[in-house]
Write a structure and sequence with these properties.
- The protein has one domain: Rossmann fold (3-Layer(aba) Sandwich).
- The protein is built from 5 helices and 13 strands.
Length: about 200
Amino acid sequence: MVKVGIFDYGAGNIFSLKSSLEKNDAEVDIITNLDKVKDYSGLLLPGVGNFDPAIKSLNSSRVAFQDLIKKQIPVLGICLGMEMFFEKSEEGKLGGLGVFEGEVILLPNKFKIPHMGWNDLQIKKPSLLLEGIKDGSWVYFVHSYRVKPKNEEIIKADSDYGINVPAVIENGTLFGTQFHPEKSGKIGYSMIKNFLRVCKK
């Protein structure tokens, strides 16, 4: 059995993610710091909350987070969790984790914000997270921002919302989804399984 930690920013509402992991036979701890991160085979940054408060809650663990990346412990950032990988966000004033160059920008105001509902994935490149997932599969989004990576090679799938929204990013053992796999039915379940498979390695 693989053991993973879900980082809780204090916003709550992470039960569905915990449940989805446990249905895939993972042992799951809800954590508020990375002091014991070496006890885990993977870490998840959930998609609940706002940018600045979430970054503040992680600030005391920045060194541990960088260490985790060096040790190549898999990390899955979901929605806000993925946005925190970048250098800055228009949602807040604080700097992000900066593991990827780029920023997080507000969706154009000509579209309905937040973008909420099911959209299909346009898979661009091979991805461990998307193994066995067919191009055109539908997943569930709830977001007002999108990531804008400097290196577009890390974008593995887009979704069309009048503009191309990076939906899946991946680089080494860092994974991110703009959508919520824990709310995306069988497709999301398969992605969670894929992430845990990486954790087992």
